[in-house]
Amino acid sequence: MNLELLKDKFGLGDDKLYGVMGAFSEPDDLVQAGRKIREMGYTKLDAMSPFPVHGIDDAIGVPPSKLGWIVICFTVLGAATALLLIWYVGAVNYRLVIGGKPFFDFSYSIPVTFELAVLFSAFASFIGMWAINGLPRLYHPSFNYSQAHRASDDRFLLVIEADDPKFDVEKSVEHMRGVGAGDVEVVEG
Predict the structure, then answer these.
(1) By C-alpha distance, which of 121, 113, 66 is closest to 87?
(2) Of 62, 99, 106, 156, which sits 20 to 30 A from 85 (CA to CA)?
(3) Angstrom distances, CA of residue 66 to CA of 9, 47, 62, 72, 150
(4) CA-to-CA distance for 12 and 52, rounded, in angstroms?
(5) What pLDDT is stored for residue 99 in this prediction?
(6) What's the pLDDT tens digit per position in 45-70?
(7) Is the pLDDT of residue 106 over 70?
């Protein structure tokens, strides 16, 4: 279909399309719709809801988060840093024999090792979450959806992104309505 006809039909400007968004009133409806849309062959989907909806990640094909792997790597790095620092200070740089204790012993280094592991994992969690989510983000194209404010109140939104290889404006709108979405809109990017 001609882009000018799409602009006239859906009231779009010159900006790039973000996708097709539809609202659902119940979380179970969102999960079922996400599963059906995914079965139709769409791969670039997103969902927005006022609270976590169990099963939506599997329904729309969200891969598991990499944050856990980032955190465990930094936790091990923190513990290794603490042990290395304690060994270097006690056995190499500032060798003191106090009360007959050895220059390095794992048992007395446990508290510091634990604290540095927790510190590194906390920083990795905080910074990793911001980086993975692309934050800070002051604008997102989904804000152009007329009912976007209801995603934090009482509606569950499903998005078929325009980057999807199967995306066609008219077919995507039909598919979204076919799975029971209300307030279906084509959203500009």
Answers:
(1) 113
(2) 99
(3) 41, 19, 12, 10, 29
(4) 32
(5) 82
(6) 999 999 999 999 999 999 999 999 99
(7) yes
